[in-house]
Amino acid sequence: MSKPAEWSVEVSKQLYGLEHSNRGEYLTVDETGSLVLKVGEESIRIIDLMKKYGLETAYIRFLPAIKSAMRRVFETYKTLSQVHGYTGKFQPVFPMKVNPIPIVIDAIWKYGEEFNWGFNTGSIGEIKLLHKYLNKGSRLLIYDGVVSDNVLKLLMDFEKAGWNVIVDVESEHDLQVLSKYANIHVGLRVKPFYKPGGKWSHSAGLEGKFGLTINTLLKLIKEYKWLNERAILIHVHGGSQIYELKHIAAIFEEAKTLLNDLRNIGFENISIIDTGGGMAYPYHDSRKGTPESPNYTIVDYINLLIKKFKDAQPHPTLVFEGGRYIVASHRIVVAKVVDVRPYSTEYKPFENGNGARMVGIPDSIEGIKKILQYTRDIQSKIKGKTLTLTERERVEDIITHFREEIIVKLVEIIRSNPSSIEKIIDDPLIYKVLTSPSKRFIISLSLFADIPDAVLVNQYFQVTPIQKLDERPDVLAVLGDLTCDSMGELREFISDVEIETSINSWFNRMDFRINHLPKKYLKLGGIPLHLPGKDEDYYIAFLDTGAYQDPLAMKHNLIYGAPEIVIDLDDSGKPVIKVVKHGRKSYL
Ligand SMILES: *Cc1c(COP(=O)(O)O)cnc(C)c1O
Q1: pLDDT, tens only, 128-162
Q2: What is the pTM of this model?
Q3: With CB atoms counted within 10 Å of each terminal CB, which end of the chain scores lower, N or C?
């Protein structure tokens, strides 16, 4: 057997999720332990960009990531349609609400030309944003918002310019308005009966916000005779980030049943099936079937889609409406650590007359558990009491002393008998101390502005340092942002390292907390990071922030508007870097 690895770039790549089926294509670590973007033949160190442009906070927009996600989706369809003999067309559209900023829409337009990528819009503003492309081509434009004359007037311009416009209907109101615009094709948006679970499950079900119930649809069919003729699409959207394939399968099944049944009652023009969003992005790529880690890939998704609609005759055109999957990976938020604070009470050696060493820590796990319980009891006993300064210092010293000595003892026990680790971390109290944070790193960003979903829906974003990735981490740190809001903190970290590593490397250098255990899936209470050296600029990156975060950004504490480093390729495949400053180099 080969010797287990000491710390190496390979361990870091696994720890920080950089061996990844999507972003692994262009994000890696070089031999100096720096996070690099692979652009064509070149490698760009992210830390060099931050230093070169003198930035403490930045969004790095790597537009080729959008192109490669589009290509992956399209090529997957092409291959699998041949495998299954599917003759229906594939028609991707970009749902603009996922990221309507002009840089992104321009990229979708430009890279989408090859694949005829269309758009799904939900508001007047989104339609207006597309107006600059009106005469530059003709794509599919699905409108999915509330219908009005103002909306229809704008859409008629696209229709006249040769675009393929489809307006989804969700109510009688929509049909009344559409009665006046006989040229516009109609999609029937139907509420999925099935609720897929997850953070956006209220999108679906009979009480869901969107679409028609079947009894309303059947009633409207009788009253609006033209519907038969004009309806060409069925739309069933089950929500976003649907992380289990069986839920996707249920939505596809509903769509297929609707297609067959509606065709049977005379909707002969329905030839397009839009199965909505939901294609989940692997924010963590362990295929666990959890909100951050879907249990399927784009290949599974499209395979299922084609297999489902293969028995419908004739084969319908399939609309792919995933937006999160297309743009999530293109934006990386980078922020400098501007302060390092103790997380809680700070460890310091006892001084003379200040308690001295009261008791040694026992060698047995049972004994350690008793002490942990004891320190908890102290805290609950003094709850609500007012302590003098001396008393409070004393209590803080005792709690810290025990905590840190216990960790040292546990590490000793594990070192002397590594196979005991499973049993030791099985105890929730012990697991908690071994994976508790010891530092709070204040970083130059605002969760509310830069990754709002971390606050809004507790979304997991992969965090990684952009340097020192060849070194073992020093501590587990909670990340505090610059806002004065207690929700502006991030502490969850998934550790999932597959390679065999030395016992040394399991524990951080300074606080001896666990940062990983080989072949174990762990949730840590802090992020494994390095203590910045004196005068060292230490930066942290948040990956895959390209979907939804730009439009949802909040102005909490008036901290917002990070500068952007936009990276694209020129025609010869060479990187082109542009810096877009929003008036500030730093949030501080
Ligand atoms: C939001 C939305 C999408 C995007 O879904 P994702 O799974 O987040 O990409 C697709 N279709 C419709 C109708 C939407 O409202």
Answers
A1: 999 999 999 999 999 999 999 999 999 999 999 99
A2: 0.95
A3: N
